[in-house]
Design brief:
The protein has helices at about 1-10, 20-40, 50-55, 60-65, 70-80, 80-85, 90-110, 120-135. It is mainly α and about 150 residues long. It has two domains: about 1-85, no CATH class; about 90-145, no CATH class. Helix 2 (about 20-40) packs across helix 4 (about 60-65) and helix 7 runs antiparallel to helix 8 (about 120-135).
Length: about 150
């Protein structure tokens, strides 16, 4: 449990007072499920009710989880033990690579003015593919994007 809290604290973002979008609400529900899952597989939590422990966590833990990469959350939800949860925490290099790919995707959307025209799925596929390579461990996958 302490490893998850540490990982989330590292990835925590400042929470603003904006009303949550449907996507953020869904992510918060996913985070609550993640916390329940971690409590249920953690040896330190044996005999405790996952819903009760997860429900007692501060809102900052939820905000940190929401700010974490979706690939991390999915990986942790699939983990069968604490070692599996720890393995879901990417290196700084992988995380930086994912952020470069996400930033390049956002810039491409802004350049294409996606507010006025629909997003071309091929555009997203390029950046999503690079991000997937980053997550798979290729911390250099987004290097070419830095020059675009």
């Amino acid at each position: 449990m302490k490893y998850l809290v540490l990982a989330i604290a590292i990835l925590a973002a400042c929470e603003d007072d904006a009303v949550d979008t449907a996507e953020v609400k869904a992510t918060k529900l996913e985070c609550k499920a993640l916390f329940r899952h971690i409590v249920s597989i953690s040896p330190q939590s044996q005999g405790q009710e996952p819903d009760k422990v997860a429900g007692a966590l501060p809102s900052e833990d939820i905000a940190g989880c929401v700010a974490a990469e979706p690939e991390m959350r999915a990986c942790m939800l699939a983990a069968k033990d604490v070692a599996g949860v720890k393995a879901c925490i990417p290196s700084d290099e992988v995380l930086a690579c994912m952020h470069v790919a996400a930033g390049a995707k956002k810039a491409a959307h802004e350049k294409a003015d996606t507010d006025k025209t629909p997003v071309d799925p091929a555009l997203d596929a390029k950046f999503d593919g690079i991000r997937a390579k980053c997550w798979a461990g290729d911390g250099k996958a987004a290097d070419a994007l830095k020059t675009i």
